[in-house]
Amino acid sequence: MATVLFAQDKFGDQLIQRDGKVIVCQVREILDDEIKYIQQGFRDDVVFGIDKNKVASIVFSDGREMKLSDSMFGKENYTLQRKNALKFNFFSPLVDATAFSYERSLKPGSSMEIGVGIIGLGQNWDQYKDVSGLYFNVGYKFIKDPDFYLRGMRYAHVLKGAYFKPELAISSYSYTFHRSWGSYDPNGTETNATVGAFILNVGKQWVFGNSFLLDWYLGAGYGVSMSGDSGNARNFAFTGATGDSPLVVNAGFRIGFLY
């Protein structure tokens, strides 16, 4: 009886795996990426090992419990990394709109981004004069994890990497149109337009020194005019959603800093 009680006490630790399975053992070592243990029925010099990412918690024989996080997705593994970024759409002023965005990491592998564009603050290249308005967009980023697994692997930075971002965008603006059927109208026709779109973007973001970032993206989706008629395909937040087709596309290059 004493021998049984001793064995139960010696091998009273439990490794609770993420798939629900339990390993009853005696924990010998907890390393950065591996847990070493021995089991009843084997010699004490036979030491087993398990990937630490496979274990959700350790329940010790004295009743204490240790929660473990995944090296890739555990928030505590990224405590020193800046989670917020302010960005400027570098080429937006060349198409008569100056755009900014804010990105916030929600958890490793996911972030939220919202943006605003000031329409009319930039260089006008076409016959649409006195353009003014705003556009807004909001998207949820799914940041790609590696195609292969190495023990202890984690993101280089929570905001870095290739991503997929579904996005909602709305653009509302007014302008004066000075051309009609090839002729120039000095008085022009004032027009108001509000156009919305759902866009699927792909892109890649680089982070340098936990301080500076570069971000490029392109996307396509569906758009619809909610009021007025823009009269052309350029709706500042995206291109498209004319009367001929609901297709919209967009692309951009952003620079920014982290804080």
How many angstroms separate the termini?
Answer: 62 Å
What is the CATH architecture assignment of the largest domain? Answer: Beta Barrel
Helix content: under 10%
Major beta sheet, strand line-up: 7-8-9-10-11-12-13-15
**Main sheet summary:** 8 strands, antiparallel, barrel
Number of strands: 15
Please tell me the total number of domains. 2
Relative strand content:
over 45%
Pick out the low-confidence regions: none
CA radius of gyration is 28 Å
How does this model look, in words?
The protein is mainly beta and 259 residues long. It has two domains: 9-68, SH3 type barrels (Roll); 78-258, Porin (Beta Barrel), CATH 2.40.160. Helices cover 3% and strands 58% of the residues. The chain is built from one helix and 15 strands. Strands 7-8-9-10-11-12-13-15 form an eight-stranded antiparallel β-barrel. It has a six-stranded antiparallel sheet with strand order 4-3-2-1-5-6, with no helix packed on it. A hairpin with a 4-residue loop joins strand 1 and strand 2 (22-30).
Q: What distinguishing features does this structure have?
A:
Porin, 15 strands, elongated, SH3 type barrels, 259 residues
Secondary-structure topology with pairs:
Blueprint: H1 2-10, E1 13-17, E2 22-30, E3 34-38, E4 48-51, E5 55-59, E6 65-67, E7 84-89, E8 97-107, E9 110-119, E10 128-143, E11 161-180, E12 183-208, E13 212-228, E14 239-240, E15 247-258
What would a concise description of this structure say?
The protein has one helix spanning 2-10; strands at 13-17, 22-30, 34-38, 48-51, 55-59, 65-67, 84-89, 97-107, 110-119, 128-143, 161-180, 183-208, 212-228, 239-240, 247-258. The protein has 259 residues and is mainly β.
